[in-house]
Write a structure and sequence with these properties.
This protein is α/β, with parallel strands linked by helices and about 400 residues long. It folds into 2 domains: about 200 residues, 3-Layer(aba) Sandwich (Rossmann fold); about 180 residues, Rossmann fold.
Amino acid sequence: MDAPSNPPGSKPATGTFLKNKDIVIISMSDWEGPKRIRQFLSEELARQGNRVLFVESQYTVSKFFQKPSLSRAFRFLKGPRRLSENLYLLSTFPFIPGGEFSAGISRTNWNLERSFLRQAMKRLGFRDPLLWMFAYNASPLIGKLGESLALYFCNDAFSLLVDSKTLQDRIASLEQELMGEVDIVFTVSDKLSEEKSRFHKSVHTIAHGVDYPLFERTAGSGAVRPEDMPSGKPVIGYSGVIRYMLDLDFIRYLAEQKPDWDFVLVGPVSESRSEFYDQIESLKRRSNVHFLGPKRPEELPLYINSFDVCLLPYVKGEVSNYYAAPLKFYEYLASGKCVVSTVGIKGYDSDVVANCTSPQEVVAAVADALSKDSAERAEKRKAIAKRNSWSERVRQIDAILAAEAK
């Protein structure tokens, strides 16, 4: 969504659909690791009184060889397990490899998955669930779990995240097949919604949100500064997964131009391309560039609070065209920080985000933020973040589902 979902003075979205529901979420990732929209929404849906079963990503033999983990491979034997009140986690058994390319293998995998899910749902007493799909390839589950409604939540341009044209076409085909089966589609940006509207009549934009209470508790000068944060210079920071969409050449330019600034990147590296790791190793040799690695979700607010200015330095290209307001944008605002972005976040003035198209503009925008920031501007940003909390996002979804059900 390109503009704020709820401008000042607007009333919160309300609905009556998401009340005491059983919800099965089919994820594209495991629960552990960097928290994404699927984990945040699962937690919020559970907090609001729904019972939620979060089904982890399909675990293939090829994934095992990429990152061997016997504990992950056999975690499915534990069955559904309780994470918190109303929230349950289910790990899937290892899939037969090759389902991305073979319809027969894919069908076999999903037949086994359906049986496994039915057993878990029976054990938990789930009835007439809402089937909530984040996995674009999970259409074989639709209509087989006794669901009352099926929805697809698209949070990325998945077919553009791979290089192979064959695999791109296969992902697009699987996604279109899924959209042909579900009752309603949600996406995280207007551009994604526009594209998905070609394949479904009911498509709605729900932007990323923020766990506002978590960040509110640590925002301000009185918070503890993490021991591994550099000190003595202004800190220009990025928090999030470090992968190819992050413009490392951009970071290098900034670090070369401003040796009197420290550049801090917090988050795991998730990339298969060797040249990307070469770039990281080269940057690590600079005294003012710091890769601090992944942090626990509850630690992130302390790191972002220690930033003086926050960056969204993405490579301009086909994938970034689908970005509106990335998840970390509202996390930055919840910490009261000014944001300098290369992805053109719309709907906010320069007190909130400086949109730049070149490294030179970024240098100027950061310098301006360092010299002119104020407590008043910080409060303005936090107020925007509060209006874009995950609880508000669930209320928006609830209102749409309630209207659709009439």
